[in-house]
TrEMBL record:
Cited InterPro entries: Cupin_2, OryJ/VirC-like, RmlC-like_jellyroll, RmlC_Cupin_sf
Residues forming coiled coils: none
Stated name of the protein: Cupin type-2 domain-containing protein
Organism: Rhodococcus wratislaviensis
Ranges for domain Cupin type-2: 79-141
Transmembrane segments: none
Length: 153
């Protein structure tokens, strides 16, 4: 569902089933190609990938049991030596709705996420695992970012 403002009043502008894209279990929900202005109906196209700097996308994401999120489908550039490892020029806020996921960082650290957990991925190299017995479903807000070489951590 999408709420917006029309003539100074809040209105429901979309209440329809989202059609899954063939790309890695992605359900497009809302998009702004640049820094969002309000009101904004969030036109959704079937383009896959990530927003340009300043753009914001909201998607549903499903990873089936046993999956490691290693299908690039033109969405991200995968590390050929380590299936599933990738990085994006974005800040991604993942809210896990059901199931469980493991976020693996390239230094070997693994973070287990369960329904209700939230993680922010800041353009770092990572991969996802679903080691559970049910599909993992998440809502992800993706904020397009510019990559710099500066490290302040």
């Amino acid at each position: 569902m999408i709420a917006a403002e029309r003539n100074g009043s809040a209105v429901l502008v979309a209440d329809e089933k989202v059609e899954r894209l063939d790309a890695a279990g992605i359900d497009p929900i809302w998009r702004s190609a640049s820094v969002p202005e309000v009101p904004n109906l969030g036109y959704v196209s079937d383009t896959v990938g990530f927003p340009d700097p300043g753009g914001v996308w909201v998607i549903g994401w499903v990873l089936e049991p046993g999956g490691i999120g290693d299908k690039d489908n033109g969405i991200v550039v995968m590390d050929g030596d380590s299936p599933g490892f990738h990085r994006t020029d974005s800040v991604d806020v993942h809210v896990l709705l059901e199931g469980s996921l493991v976020l693996e960082l390239d230094d070997g650290v693994e973070i287990e996420l369960n329904a209700g957990d939230t993680v922010v991925v800041n353009g770092n190299k990572h991969r996802w695992h679903n080691r559970g017995t049910q599909a993992a479903r998440a809502i992800v807000t993706i904020c397009g970012a510019s990559r710099t070489d500066r490290q302040e951590i």
